[in-house]
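Troubleshooting: if your tokenizer reports a length mismatch, compare your output against this known-good record of 98 residues.
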Amino acid sequence: MQENNLSVEEASAELSEMVENAWKDLNKECIKLTSVPTEILMCVVNLTRLIDVVYKNNQDGYNNPKNNVKSVIEALHLSSDLRMRKTLTLSTKSTQID
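Known-good structure output:
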């Protein structure tokens, strides 16, 4: 901030604009046809989403114990675990049918 003679508010606004532009770029790239498998793209998108949640509103939700990011991460993990169990159950049933 001191290097560019910006106030905290100006620097924050500039950073917010950079984040918004990065989201736009990420969404554009996900729409394009590419040789990269969708699973890999979704890992990148999901990691980006997690970072956005953890550091939302210029808060360090990871290191700040007052933020409730732990419950969000646990909910995401639980949701992922439930989807994985459902997939495994369905694949087991389809294997038994064959």
